[in-house]
Specification:
The strands form three sheets. The chain has a 13-stranded parallel sheet with strand order 3-5-6-7-8-9-10-11-12-13-14-15-17, covered by helices on one side. The longest helix is centred in the C-terminal third of the chain and has 8 residues, at 337-344. The chain has one helix and 19 strands. It is mainly β. Strand 1 (3-10) and strand 2 form a beta hairpin. It folds into two domains: 1-153, Ribonuclease Inhibitor (Leucine-rich repeat, LRR (right-handed beta-alpha superhelix)); 227-352, Ribonuclease Inhibitor (Leucine-rich repeat, LRR (right-handed beta-alpha superhelix)), CATH 3.80.10.
C-alpha cells in the first residue's frame, strides 16, 4: 500500500477524507470547514516535512502521532478554534523550524516541549487569549528569528530569556495589556530588526537598552500612555527606517537624535499633545517619505528643514495647522512632492 487515509469531519457533520502518499512531504488542509481530524495515519509518512491545517473549525486536535515524524519542519494550526493544545509530541521533532498557532482561542500554551526543538526559527502565538506566557523553554532555541505574541491579553512578560537568542530578528508584543516592560535583555539581541510594542498600556519605557541594536529598522511604540519618550539612545550609524510614537500622551519630543537616522523613511508622531515641534533634525533624513503629525495641538510648523527631504511624499497635518517655509530656500522645481503639493494648493505660507 503506497497511500494512507486521513479522516476528518466537517462542521456540518459530513466526512471528508484525504488520500496521502506514504512518501508525502506536505499535508495541507486549508479553508475546508474541518471541525475534527485524526492525524494518526500520518505517522506512517516518515518523510513528512510540513503539516498545515489552516482556516478551519478545529476546536481540539491530538498531535501525538507527530511524535513519529522526526523530519517535521513546519506545523501550522493557524486560524482555527483551538482552546488548548498539547505540544508534548513535538519533543520528538528536533528539526521543527516553524510553529504557527495564531488566530485561535488559546488561554495558555506550555512551551516546554520546544526546548527539544533547537532548530526552531519562527514562533507565532498571535491573536489568541493568552494572559500569561513563560518564554523560558525557548532558551534552547538559539536559532529562533521571529516571535509574535501580538493581540493577546498579556499584562506582563519576562523577556530575560531573550538574552540567549542572539539571532532574533523580529519581536512583536503589540496589542496586549502590558503596562511595564524591561527591555534590558534585548541588549544581547544584536540582530533584532523589528520591535513592536504598540497598543499596550505602557506609561514609561526605558529604551536605553536599544542603543546596542545597530540593525534595528522598525520600532513601534504607538498606542500607549507615555508622556515622555527619550530618543537619546539613537546613535550614529542607526539603520532605523520606520519609527512610530503616535497615539501616546507626548507634550513634547526632542527629535535631535534623529540627525543620525539617514535611512529614516517614516516618522509618525500623530495623536499626541504636542504644542510645538522643532523639525531641524530631520534635515539630515534625506530618505524620509512619510511624516505624520495629525491630531496634536500644533498651530504652526516650520517645514523649511523638510526641503532637504527630497523623497517626502506624505506630510500629514491638521487642516488648521499653518505650514511655513523660508521663502529664500523654497524652489518649487526642487521641493519634495509633499511641499510642492501644498504650494500648488495654496497651503504653504512663506516666511523671510
Amino acid at each position: 500500500m503506497s497511500n494512507t487515509i486521513v479522516e476528518s469531519t466537517l462542521k456540518n457533520g459530513e466526512p471528508l477524507n484525504w488520500t496521502v502518499p506514504l512518501d508525502a512531504r506536505h499535508f495541507r488542509v486549508e479553508r475546508q470547514q474541518v471541525a475534527s481530524i485524526d492525524l494518526t495515519p500520518l505517522q506512517q509518512c516518515a518523510k513528512l516535512h510540513e503539516i498545515v491545517i489552516y482556516r478551519n473549525k478545529l476546536e481540539t486536535v491530538d498531535l501525538s502521532p507527530l511524535s513519529k515524524l522526526r523530519d517535521l519542519r513546519t506545523l501550522s494550526l493557524s486560524n482555527n478554534r483551538l482552546r488548548a493544545v498539547d505540544l508534548a509530541p513535538l519533543r520528538s521533532c528536533p528539526y521543527l523550524d516553524s510553529l504557527d498557532l495564531s488566530e485561535n482561542f488559546l488561554h495558555e500554551v506550555d512551551l516546554r516541549p520546544l526546548s527539544k526543538c533547537p532548530r526552531l526559527r519562527g514562533l507565532s502565538l498571535a491573536r489568541n487569549l493568552l494572559t500569561t506566557l513563560d518564554l523560558d523553554p525557548l532558551k534552547s532555541c538559539k536559532n529562533i528569528e521571529s516571535i509574535s505574541i501580538s493581540r493577546n491579553k498579556l499584562q506582563k512578560i519576562d523577556l530575560s530569556i531573550l538574552a540567549h537568542l542572539r539571532v532574533l530578528d523580529r519581536l512583536s508584543l503589540s496589542n496586549n495589556r502590558i503596562d511595564v516592560i524591561d527591555l534590558k535583555p534585548l541588549q544581547a539581541c544584536s540582530s533584532l530588526r523589528e520591535l513592536s510594542l504598540d497598543a499596550n498600556r505602557l506609561t514609561t519605557v526605558d529604551m536605553t537598552p536599544l542603543k546596542n541594536l545597530t540593525h534595528l529598522e522598525v520600532l513601534d511604540v504607538s498606542g500607549n500612555k507615555q508622556k515622555i519618550i527619550n530618543l537619546s539612545w539613537i546613535d550614529s550609524g542607526s539603520r532605523l527606517r520606520d519609527l512610530d510614537i503616535s497615539s501616546n500622551k507626548l507634550g513634547s519630543i526632542d527629535l535631535t537624535p534623529l540627525e543620525s537616522c539617514v535611512k529614516l523613511e517614516a516618522l509618525r508622531i500623530a495623536k499626541n499633545e504636542l504644542v510645538s515641534l522643532e523639525l531641524d533634525p530631520l534635515s539630515s533624513c534625506s530618505e524620509l517619505k512619510v511624516l505624520n503629525l495629525i491630531e496634536n495641538r500644533l498651530r504652526v510648523i516650520d517645514a523649511t528643514p523638510l526641503l532637504s527631504c527630497m523623497h517626502l511624499d506624505i506630510l500629514r497635518v491638521d487642516r488648521d495647522v499653518e505650514v511655513t517655509v523660508s521663502k529664500n530656500y523654497f524652489d518649487p522645481d526642487m521641493a519634495p512632492e509633499a511641499l510642492r503639493w501644498r504650494w500648488q494648493n495654496g497651503l504653504l505660507t512663506f516666511i523671510e
